[in-house]
Design brief:
Elements lengths: L1 E3 L1 H7 L2 H16 L3 E3 L3 E5 L2 E10 L4 E10 L2 E10 L5 E6 L1 H19 L4 E7 L5 H11 L1 E8 L3 H15 L3 E4 L2 H5 L4 E4 L17 E5 L12 H5 L3 E4 L2 H7 L1 H8 L6 E2 H6 L1 H4 L4 E5 L4 H14 L4
Parallel strand pairs: 1-7, 8-9, 8-11, 9-10, 11-12, 12-15, 13-14, 13-15
Antiparallel strand pairs: 2-4, 3-4, 4-5, 5-6, 6-7
Helix pairs in contact: 2-3, 2-12, 3-4, 3-12, 8-9
Length: 303
């Protein structure tokens, strides 16, 4: 059994490969060769323990992401088991792994759904996860303009400056969400907002929105009309969305919406690719973590 640190994860994972392995995993899921359960939370005396199990028989693995959060912070690990002999292959520190797959997944979903490569991207949020949101999209699209909005403008400026140096592209920090969204065709939102940051009126005639923040039902990054007035709404796991996503809960219960699950979009690409107004909502499922862990082990020549 291997114990793999965040530093090793950072050395051996590449964003482009994470995007690809996640698409493979959702194709397996759509074809009945993988499964994932909704997140389970245990809350007691200020401690929250989360577990996210999954299995992928095409990859020959099963496992879970598990993490604990409390007053002193949070700790994340991914467990990978060999499906053939039931051995525990690895325990992987999953702070960096989680950040990578959180950025790779909306990039993969966008690749499945969005027509063309040349786009203007807006990133809403400038925290820990925002960097890989940008990185993932850069691997899949030719971004002629990149803008960032944060509720704290100084954070947006700092993010723009740091990411310009890191990726060698020009990024403009905007003081309002409306300005940041003007003329944008790709939008990645990664915040913990309890109130909608933008509405349908802030978007143009063609857009794809990735809603990547908020996995509690009281949180909501986009107004209801962003989903209800779109041509297609996709979510990675409907059961989990109906437990945790304010946007999907309202879309289904208040507007009679019918989201498509990402696994179905992955195996029916021609059916769903190229709609003019699309939304993808992600909250994270264990399948993404074990697939990324599998890639890591392969890159480290441990499988």
């Amino acid at each position: 059994m291997y114990y793999i640190t965040d530093e090793e994860v950072n050395r051996h994972l590449r964003m482009e490969e994470v995007v690809d392995v996640l698409e493979d995993a959702f194709v397996h899921y759509g074809n009945g060769k993988a499964m994932a359960s909704a997140r389970d939370r245990l809350i007691l005396d200020g401690t929250v323990y989360n577990s996210m199990p999954a299995i992928d028989t095409e990859l020959g693995i099963a496992g879970m992401k598990a993490y604990i959060a409390g007053k002193t912070g949070a700790r994340f690990v991914v467990l990978i088991f060999n499906q053939k002999d039931n051995d525990l292959i690895a325990v992987i520190e999953a702070d960096r792994l989680g950040q990578m797959r959180t950025g790779a997944l909306p990039a993969m979903a966008s690749r499945l759904l969005v027509k063309g490569k040349k786009h203007t991207l807006t990133v809403i949020g400038s925290g820990f996860q925002a960097e890989t949101q940008l990185h993932g999209m850069l691997t899949q699209f030719d971004l002629d303009v990149v803008k960032v909005y944060s509720r704290n403008f100084s954070h947006a400026r700092k993010f723009a400056t740091e990411m310009e140096k890191k990726f060698g592209i020009e990024i403009k920090a905007e003081e309002t969400a409306k300005a940041a969204l003007k003329d944008s065709t790709l939008i990645n939102s990664i915040t913990n907002s309890n109130e909608a940051i933008f509405s349908r009126a802030d978007l143009g005639d063609e857009y794809h929105v990735n809603l990547c923040g908020g996995n509690l039902p009281m949180r909501q990054e986009a107004a209801d009309d962003v989903l209800s007035m779109s041509d297609l709404v996709v979510t990675e796991h409907l059961d989990q969305s109906l437990r945790e996503s304010g946007e999907i809960i309202h879309f289904v219960k208040d507007h009679g919406g019918k989201p498509v699950e990402l696994k179905d979009a992955a195996i029916n690409r021609e059916k769903y690719h190229g709609r003019k107004k699309t939304v993808f909502k992600t909250m994270g499922i264990g399948l993404e973590d074990i697939a990324t862990g599998y890639l890591l082990l392969k890159n480290m020549k441990l499988l």
